[in-house]
Amino acid sequence: MAILSKTVTVEKYLAGVRVDSFLVKHFRSYTSWRILRMVAAGLVTIDGQVAATTQRVHPGQQVTIQLAEPPDLYIPPEPTPLEILFEDDSLLVINKPAGLIAHPTGEIPDGTLINAVQHYLDKQSTHPGLERPGIVHRLDRDTSGAMAICKEHLSHRLLSIQFQLGRISKSYLALVEGVLTDDQMVIDLPIGRAPGCSSALMSCRADALEAQASKTSLRVVERFPKHTLVEAKPRTGRMHQIRIHLATIGFPIVGDEFYLKGGEIRPLVWPESEREQVSSLINRQALHAAGLSFAHPLTNEWQDFQAPLPDDLRQAIELARHGQT
């Protein structure tokens, strides 16, 4: 790999950190020991002067590194097609397809969204692997829709802060079982971990563990003979919030594997024949992250993104419109 020179400016919040720690923040595809080795080799300068391994950085300084070694935090790129809603030098917004989890896990080591994004970024780069995508928020594996992914450190940090402070606007479309009578409502029910279940399952029951206040605003978009299409806007950010809130009030999302009417939870292990009968309308939960809005982390301009409905959910809505169950 040709030696690439990169210069970054020290931000205020990183004042006083060691130069290697500062560089690890900005070059997330490198381990800390490899960065430190390049500092020790004299490949890093601060305002034009060769940096010592123990030197600390201060706001406004220019730190330049000669990337003489290849990245060693490697994400295998995979050519999964991506629908790009927006892109600039710091940010990607995609329309995530259902069936993709965000990151590799022990059970799913590849075939994830991050593998697909790494492939997309590598195709545009003269130094594949240098850009390491940063996922700020997640969607469930079987939820489709808008997701923001950052290309570099500062945008990732600033957008993460917006999420933590609740300054992001998100809207979802959900096809639910049953016909809601109220045009609008707010579900205000605490959510915690479901007792006696996997830590990945949630509950609104009184005995839920570590429950936190949770609110979801609902608006009826269209009523069908046996279903309702609703817009859901989470005011808080709990795991599975929309799914468990809708199920608890008696209107579970069509195709949901686990959350049943009244907030009951289907066992984690159940027959494949029964699994196939969850819904004839769609073979996954009918939930789509249709809208995502936030201030651009670097320009501060308000951005509003709309993710088109995928074909499977569009077809399910049409079937529900004609009364199919």
UniProtKB/TrEMBL annotation:
InterPro entries xrefs: PsdUridine_synth_cat_dom_sf, PsdUridine_synth_RluC/D, PsdUridine_synth_RsuA/RluA, RluA_PseudoU_synthase, S4_RNA-bd_sf
Catalysis performed (reactions): a uridine in RNA = a pseudouridine in RNA
Top-rank taxon: Bacteria
Keyword annotations from UniProtKB, A to Z: Isomerase, RNA-binding
Active site, UniProt feature: 140
One Pfam family named in its UniProt record: PseudoU_synth_2
Domain named Pseudouridine synthase RsuA/RluA-like: residues: 91-247
Molecular function GO terms recorded: catalytic activity, acting on RNA; pseudouridine synthase activity; RNA binding
GO biological process, one term: enzyme-directed rRNA pseudouridine synthesis
Group of enzyme by EC: isomerase
EC numbers for this chain: 5.4.99.-
Role description: Responsible for synthesis of pseudouridine from uracil.
Family note: Belongs to the pseudouridine synthase RluA family.
Protein name: Pseudouridine synthase
